[in-house]
Amino acid sequence: MGHMVPHAAIGVPLHGGDVRAPADVFNSIFEVFLVLGTAVGVLVVTYTLYHAIKYRETAGEDPYADKVERPSMGEMPTGGSGGRKVFYSFGISAIIVVSLIAWTYSSLAYVEDGPQIAGEEDITVQVEGFRFGWAFIYPNGHEASTLKVPRNRVVRLEVTSRDVFHNFGIPELRVKADAIPGQTTDAWFTASETGTYQAKCYELCGSGHSVMVAPVEVMPQDEYQSWYAGTNGTQNGSSNQTAASVGGAPA
Ligand SMILES: [Cu+2]
């Protein structure tokens, strides 16, 4: 239904640079878990060591024998603050854990769904995996073995396969999508830095699986536009040659 609505009706065109990249979302999830995990670890280990040292037995004697009442094995400890400590630590832990789950879940849902507003300048590329390579097909029909995209634009991928199960991924840009024959998997990304990245296959698909790679070129927007204008729907052909050379027959 969404694609039938004219762009003007959807809303203001969205500049890709304003969209939070999946790579940034994954990086912040990693950082938050690393910092919180380290903090909890340091706290627990320090607290444990502190008490182990403070209440240790010295030379067979118990210096705290008359100061603390030690529970014996199997007996519930008595005294203390009447469970207030336990109540607060459980309460605070629950609040932290529940908000962490909510935040992580909504961040991942954002990556899963993609930017909801379709921008005028979004780029959609069909990605077709085959034994052993990748073909990138642009809206004007141009087919290439290198994925060229402009920086700071939302790039939407429609991933499928011509033969067996593959999986398309660009690790540095944190994109990964199943390539399944007869099905299309949607994925998206934005890249803020120009340069050459590498796309790889992440589903063991045969003898050439490990060489099933493709260059991904992130270009300045004006450079991309003049390159795209010059393609005129031509076939690059190199991907078909690759397929033919290993005996594959692209559909
Ligand atoms: Cu593969």
Automatic annotation (TrEMBL):
Family annotation (SUPFAM superfamilies): Cupredoxins
Cell compartments where the protein resides: Membrane
One biological process term in Gene Ontology: ATP synthesis coupled electron transport
Claim: Transit peptide is one of the keywords in the record: no
Segments of this protein annotated with the region Disordered: 229-251
GO cellular component entries: membrane
Residue ranges crossing the lipid bilayer per the database entry: 29-50, 86-105
GO molecular-function terms, A-Z: copper ion binding; cytochrome-c oxidase activity; oxidoreductase activity
CDD domains: CuRO_HCO_II_like_6 (cd13918)
Extent of Polar residues compositional bias: 229-244
Key words, A-Z: Copper, Electron transport, Membrane, Metal-binding, Respiratory chain, Transmembrane, Transmembrane helix, Transport
Primary localisation category: membrane
Domain Cytochrome oxidase subunit II copper A binding: 120-230
Membrane topology annotation: Multi-pass membrane protein
PANTHER family: CYTOCHROME C OXIDASE SUBUNIT 2, CYTOCHROME C OXIDASE, SUBUNIT II
Entry similarity comment: Belongs to the cytochrome c oxidase subunit 2 family.
NCBIfam families (alphabetical): CoxB
The protein's name in its UniProt record: Cytochrome oxidase subunit II copper A binding domain-containing protein
Source species of the chain: Haloarcula pellucida
Lineage per the UniProt record: Archaea, Methanobacteriati, Methanobacteriota, Stenosarchaea group, Halobacteria
